[in-house]
């Protein structure tokens, strides 16, 4: 697998940060948007499929709302995003129209990526847009995301979109042209041209840069890890180098794919989901779930914490309190205490046949040990 494959990828996810789309005053920069679209449209017209994950809704809303800088409180951020999202999509619509291409807006929340029915729907919608020749413009649905369930940055969202669309490559565009082994503003810092594994990142300074966006280098590296862990190669570079990045030229930092495509839902569970509660397991249950990949039965659970509903992601903790796995639970939190310590057969006898099912089915469990 090499960089050239980015140049020939049939389906690309391209993520652009708000700092790459805005003027120094924080308004949307028409010329910068057009320059990016020139590159994306060329690829699209050459037969490639593009999914664009674009930040910038809040930045686009500052001007119309008369705000001088990015608001601190969530409600005003969401108001700015609401006003700005329309402005942003209108900008992309007219920019792509210069090439006779249409865009379609797709707003996603972290929740959409966790619930089985939602993520299937997101996958179908994106697939259909691509079939219809549309360029999907994806953003986090900021106006309804709460602090608990937001991606908080579009880097992770892009990595998950790369999954859900079975993309062949992902390009992360920001205001930084590559990863460096020191502060790029000082002399002597070397560009890291490729990353094959964690050892290539030792000593890398991942400080946050830029004011406009939310994602520092840390989130970009995490996003690259999510994508490459699922077999999708990643190029990280500045928006100014977009054409070279998409062509597979030697710009930015190239992250080699390391894993293969796992079940997408388990990926959501590992990376997009936040546990809505905790189930504390005894040693035997940890061994069964983690060691032998079995379903979680009520008999092995000693304690339940949190207020969650059936279908929610919950964290599974071992005796030491360390989170070892996460899963989609089959019961509400309130139903579980009376099940604890009992065998499923006994439960079916005492409470009725619907209680014979496992707390969490093994297909809905992701082991977290090696991810963190």
From TrEMBL:
Entry's localization field: Cytoplasm
SMART domains registered for this protein in UniProt: PUA
Pathway(s): Amino-acid biosynthesis; L-proline biosynthesis; L-glutamate 5-semialdehyde from L-glutamate: step 1/2
Chain sites annotated for binding ATP: 15, 174-175, 214-220
Protein function: Catalyzes the transfer of a phosphate group to glutamate to form L-glutamate 5-phosphate.
Family: Belongs to the glutamate 5-kinase family.
UniProt keyword annotation of Nucleus present: no
Enzyme Commission number(s): 2.7.2.11
Pfam families: AA_kinase, PUA
Residues where substrate binds: 55, 142, 154
The reaction(s) this protein catalyses: L-glutamate + ATP = L-glutamyl 5-phosphate + ADP
Stated name of the protein: Glutamate 5-kinase
Gene3D superfamilies: Acetylglutamate kinase-like, PUA domain
NCBIfam families: proB
Gene designation: proB
InterPro entries the record matches: AceGlu_kinase-like_sf, Asp/Glu/Uridylate_kinase, G5K_ProB, Glu/AcGlu_kinase, Glu_5kinase, Glu_5kinase/COase_Synthase, Glutamate_5-kinase_CS, PUA
